[in-house]
Amino acid sequence: MPWTATLLMFDPTASIRKAKIGGKSVERDRILSEDEIRELYRKLPNANFISSTECAIWIMLSTCCRVGELSKARWEHVDLTAKTWLIPDEHSKNGKPHIIYLSDFALRQFKRLSEHRESDSWMFMDRSKTHHVCDKSISKQINDRQTDRVRSNKSQHKDALRLSGGKWTPHDLRRTGATLMGNLGVLPDVIEKCLNHTEQNKMKRIYQRQELKAEQAEAWRILGERLELLTGDNKNVVPIKRAS
Asked: Which pLDDT tens digit goes with each residue over 183-213?
């Protein structure tokens, strides 16, 4: 019987999850406490990062962006005067463009990046200086500074960013920023907009199309002000209660 090719119009593996093939899918819930944010601020200068990676950490925390979105960021999408950063649809996880209104805290990190920019295109350049860094580059740098042993070709500052609450990842910064917003009184619907999440409720997704731009800008401002306190010299920061 002759062999014939079949064109599939969908990915047959798309619905497969780790749990179905013997793996374990774990939902992470790690967030950095306010004490750990202070700890991170103290330890970061000794981690031997280039300045752009330091900026990346604070940008992820203060904007709640994904590390992949930041890795591919282009200067043409940043307006330092209007204090906005556009994540275009081709870079966002849900395929929808997302505008982040930069707090003064976040804006300062973008300005620091701009002062040392190596390209008019990419904010984070790879070693060839021709393209953006790999999506996993920033994550690897952070991970290499939270290990028990020194591996070949890895950072010698193996435990420089180990925090009291345990190992953390770039995505934990996104979760931490969102949690801080909630603890500071930002409404859940606004936080979801700041995260550029797709509404899971079909009826709300179809009929409630409000963008809440002003509310989002205020949420990022409030988060930025809190981070200013936590990373400044103020010794009398009053802890905020966790959202229940």
From this structure: 999 999 999 999 998 655 544 544 344 578 9
pLDDT attached to residue 16:
44
Locate 148 and state its tokens: 């028990």
Q: How confident is the model at residue 18 (pLDDT cuts 50, 70, 90)?
A: very low
Q: What is the DSSP string of the chain?
A: --------SS-TTTT--GGGGT-----------HHHHHHHHHHGGGS---HHHHHHHHHHHHH---HHHHHT-BGGGEETTTTEEEE-TTTSTTS--EEEE--HHHHHHHHHHHHT-S-SSBSSB-TTSSSBPPTTHHHHHHHTTS-SS--TTS-S-TTTT-BTTB---HHHHHHHHHHHHHHTT--HHHHHHHTTPPPSSHHHHHH-----HHHHHHHHHHHHHHHHHHTSS-S-PPPPPPP-
Give the pLDDT of residue 148.
Answer: 76
